[in-house]
Amino acid sequence: MEFEEKVIDVEHIFDGHIVDLDVETVLTPEGQKATREIAYHANAVGVVIVSEDNKMLLVRQWRAPLRQETLEIIAGKLEPGENEASAVVRELNEEARLQAQSVEKLTSFYVSPGFTNEKLTLYHASGLSPVSEKLPQDEGEILNLEWLDIKEVQVAIAKGEICDAKTIMAVMLWQSLQ
């Protein structure tokens, strides 16, 4: 069976700082018209950091769409023209004020392909040291760094403090390496 839909009309709804929105009218393989709402978002990187004493570095921050604090791995979207390696270096500096001797790609995945094209790539950073020159943080960004062991991470997941896919995937990768 063929699954590919044919786009017959696109209505551009919004150009934003984070997302652009389109509403597409498509023709399904069975010949039916359907509507698809699509959020175009820059690709992103996430950074898995585990200390020598086996604790994961997480960032506590406020997430407005959820109306709650979350604990997440260091992450951010790629800026226009930026490659993933540069984004990892920049995000490590902006969010944790760290630099890494080694950065290794772990995996890539689509965040939620039902409505967005955003692809996130997870990296592992090691050989960490403080940066000598701090980059500015994002406007309005308030971050608190926390090092948690595996049991503390599991409690944070159960409490809903760790609730995003990228961080849960990072935790699963960390646990698989134990």
Automatic annotation (TrEMBL):
GO molecular function: hydrolase activity
GO cellular component, one term: cytosol
Superkingdom classification of source: Bacteria
Nudix hydrolase domain location: 39-170
Requisite cofactors: Mg(2+)
Pfam families linked to this entry: NUDIX
PROSITE patterns: NUDIX, NUDIX_BOX
GO terms classed as biological process: nucleoside phosphate metabolic process; ribose phosphate metabolic process
Keywords, sorted A to Z: Hydrolase
UniProt-listed SUPFAM superfamilies: Nudix
Protein known as: ADP-ribose pyrophosphatase
Organism: Ligilactobacillus equi DSM 15833 = JCM 10991
